[in-house]
């Protein structure tokens, strides 16, 4: 189930947490062909967890934008997950992500202290790892 959550989380970035490690394909997704992952494969608890993860990515997006280092997560993830996740699921997740970003736009951030700079580095590294993981997962055949 972690593979599916990782893929769908990525879609929302089409769209902070460390990237989720991929494990085996969940039973609900067995028999699902590449390009057909969708939200309907998740139960309510898994879907709620996915939305919490999206909210975390939204915080990172707003933080990095405020610090002059916009990660362009939605554009990057859309590119990665196209053909991997059904477009209707991508749009649902992207809508949630955009609302989460918009709700945090007015927050103030520390971008200049040592702690702030360390958080920028940690956030950008988490994004790099997530993007690499998603690229690997979505390029599987």
Care to describe what's here?
The protein is mainly alpha-helical and 141 residues long. It has one domain (2-138). Helices cover 60% and strands 0% of the residues. The chain has helices at residues 2-13, 44-66, 73-81, 87-102, 114-138. Helix 1 (2-13) packs across helix 4 (87-102). It is globular and about 45 Å long. The two termini are 17 Å apart.
Give the arrangement of secondary structure elements.
Layout (H helix, E strand, L loop, with lengths): L1 H12 L30 H23 L6 H9 L5 H16 L11 H25 L3
Helix pairs in contact: 1-2, 1-3, 1-4, 1-5, 2-4, 3-5
Distance linking N and C termini: 17 Å
Number of strands: 0
Percentage of β-strand residues: under 5%
Query: What value does the average pLDDT take?
Result: 78
What is the count of DSSP helices, taking H or I runs of 4+ residues? 5
List keywords for this structure.
141 residues, mainly alpha, 5 helices, 0% strand
What does this entry show, briefly?
The chain has 141 residues and is mainly alpha-helical. Helix content is 60%, strand content 0%.
């Amino acid at each position: 189930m972690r593979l599916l959550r990782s893929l769908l989380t990525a879609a929302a970035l089409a769209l902070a947490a460390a990237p989720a490690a991929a494990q085996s394909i969940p039973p609900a997704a067995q028999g699902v062909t590449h390009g057909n992952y969708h939200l309907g494969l998740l139960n309510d608890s898994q879907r709620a967890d996915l939305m919490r993860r999206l909210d975390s990515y939204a915080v990172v997006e707003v933080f990095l934008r405020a610090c002059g280092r916009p990660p362009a997560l939605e554009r990057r993830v859309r590119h990665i997950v196209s053909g991997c996740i059904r477009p209707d699921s991508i749009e649902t997740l992207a809508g949630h992500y955009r609302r989460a970003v918009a709700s945090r736009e007015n927050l103030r951030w520390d971008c200049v202290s040592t702690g702030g700079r360390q958080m920028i580095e940690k956030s950008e590294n988490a994004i790099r790892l997530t993007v690499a993981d998603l690229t690997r997962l979505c390029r599987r055949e």
